[in-house]
């Protein structure tokens, strides 16, 4: 009887220990997740709990105010274990304030994480340029910014696909003034550019034009024509690019609504209101599918060049989609990093991007990045996960799906992607975080340049007014940053690949 | 001594109007009609496009009447789990918030309208102060969190149940409508303050209460900011926040966020957005005609101070 009682007492004391051992580790996270995904009772989250022993408590704020919400949490000391946010000046400030965990030595302790993030990609979170990494950039595939052209219009006006800036202007004029849609009304434009926030001629979607002048709108590491490193406004082709946009605007061949923040150039292109539109070569067939247009009516083309015979170039900065930051005071650092590591594995990447076999697809080949799934499975997957929910948007440098969802689109993508890839030189260069200082230390000067650019394009100020300011006050004040940038690029030169 | 203005020539008591009067009236009618069309056109466009197929919209975005009506956009919008939960949240917040607001307005405005209330000016000064100054976003958030309202349904109406502006309107209305002699008469008959408030004052201020119900209901229905700031769970998002999520691309100045928002999974077809707008504004559009007279009355409520 005594032995039985002793055994019972020991068992009762031990039970909580066993129970504790099986309790999942709770991690709080603020993530960007599109509203279609249902977070409550989410099968992916349940899978993570069952297989990793991690209970993920997700807050997914409205996307339109995501940044404000994260800043609010950081300011009030409510930072969760894991936060998804841009690798920008705010994140740098949080690193300075000691809110973020330094990951420099930790990344290599997790095999999938270290394998799926190149050293160049990690550079996005090297906020102080000293090799210390403060976040895990969300792995993404390389973009290639070329353009789509309306082939039917091109045939109607009897032109060839433009390769040079001169041919581009010629096609823009034909698309605007020769009634390419044949409706008898002058209601078309040659091209619509991309906009970001307030009007700016600098957008990745416009890189197919600006790269002819060795300028990538958002990525300053792109060397100038002579190979030197200069701030965007100080590059040798800057003035000519501005003159080109002014010419397109003045002649009315550039969609004037391009100046309206929020105007949707992509939709206009597929509505048949403009004839050319900048887009990434890695997923242009997704857009053809999205708008339900005839794929044969559109052709993907390489970026433009200045002179016939020049080789077009793709700007290839390391590609990352914001970054994940770990709370410096988190009690569950290992669990957070295990979660990110799993998401970078083939299994984690597949589940977070595609869902579960049977429920959301019949088969998925991670080597060819192709999937076999029904419409019902696709719809079911929309409620479970998305490429926004996935902690990695690329595995071994490639996205989950490439080319589209049916054989016709995949064949078109493979053909045109391969042709433009062969024709175009790739220019790889690192992240250049020191450029952020221009906006932080000289916000008024940066705003003045942007204002002068807009006013020059609309004809309110002269080219001399613009260039006098750029080469005068702006160049003088930003000289130290420009020098730091030049020194960095000298130590980390761009790499050219054919 | 000036003689009273002579009436215009009349025929059987009707004022004879000159040609210029007719011209002026015609012109005014024309201008008002044009303005009404300008105001109405966006609603008409949104309504009809919500019944249009996306392919038809893409083919001709300026088309107003669809060639073929389809409910596809509504089916897709209703398929969002968030829309269904958000409808429930919005209705609960609007009903509970309006009831609480109006109750608090009545019990606050009544004593403030009585001259015998000690320290009335100080209290009114403190209330006025809140119209011009507040703690700001972060202190508000810290207080909300400290009192345990963060991420609850109540955070969308309890801290904001009473507004200084509405309180002043109500106080002035009571001052103008309910005479102190009436109160004294009730007191002589043995009524206490609570009895006087609910049996004497409230029946007299019904028009003001109706107006406040409309004001508060519209405010609570339309508000998305509170949920955006103080709610973490999506199941507590109100309809307007879901609508904003579907319609607004980005107000963020973070380029990387903007970049993500232009990704494929954030591109909601236009017709879907229009259907979401119709679903969101439908309850207010249905109720509004019945409450319009109170809304108009509210414009002049309490505007005359004795």
Describe the protein in words.
The complex is a heterodimer of chains A (498) and B (306). Helix content of chain A is 41%, strand content 13%. With 498 residues, chain A is α/β, with parallel strands linked by helices. In chain A, α12 packs antiparallel against α16 (407-423) and α18 (443-457) runs antiparallel to α19 (463-477). In chain A, 45% of the residues are buried. With 306 residues, chain B is mostly helical. Chain B has a single domain (81-296), classed as Orthogonal Bundle (MetI-like fold). Helices cover 67% and strands 1% of the residues of chain B. In chain B, α4 (81-113) packs across α7 (164-177), α4 (81-113) packs across α12 (239-247) and α8 (180-188) packs across α9. Chain B is flat. Residues 250-267 of chain B have low confidence and may be disordered. Classes of the chains: A alpha/beta (498), B mainly alpha (306). At the A-B interface, α3 and α12 of A face α2, α6, α12 and α13 of B.
List the helices and strands and how they pair.
The complex is a heterodimer of chains A (498) and B (306).
Chain A: H1 2-22, E1 25-30, H2 43-52, E2 54-59, H3 66-75, E3 82-85, H4 89-96, H5 111-116, H6 119-122, E4 136-139, E5 145-150, H7 151-157, H8 165-177, E6 189-191, H9 207-210, H10 238-251, H11 265-270, E7 274-280, H12 284-290, E8 298-301, E9 313-316, E10 320-326, H13 333-343, H14 346-354, E11 363-365, E12 370-372, H15 375-382, H16 407-423, E13 425-428, H17 436-441, H18 443-457, H19 463-477, H20 479-491, E14 495-497
Parallel strand pairs in A: 1-2, 1-3, 6-7, 9-13
Antiparallel strand pairs in A: 3-10, 4-10, 5-7, 5-8, 11-12, 13-14
Chain B: E1 10-11, E2 14-15, H1 19-49, H2 54-59, H3 72-79, H4 81-113, H5 120-132, H6 137-146, H7 164-177, H8 180-188, H9 193-204, H10 206-222, H11 225-230, H12 239-247, H13 255-261, H14 270-300
Antiparallel strand pairs in B: 1-2
Helix pairs in contact in B: 3-14, 4-7, 4-10, 4-12, 8-9, 10-14, 12-14
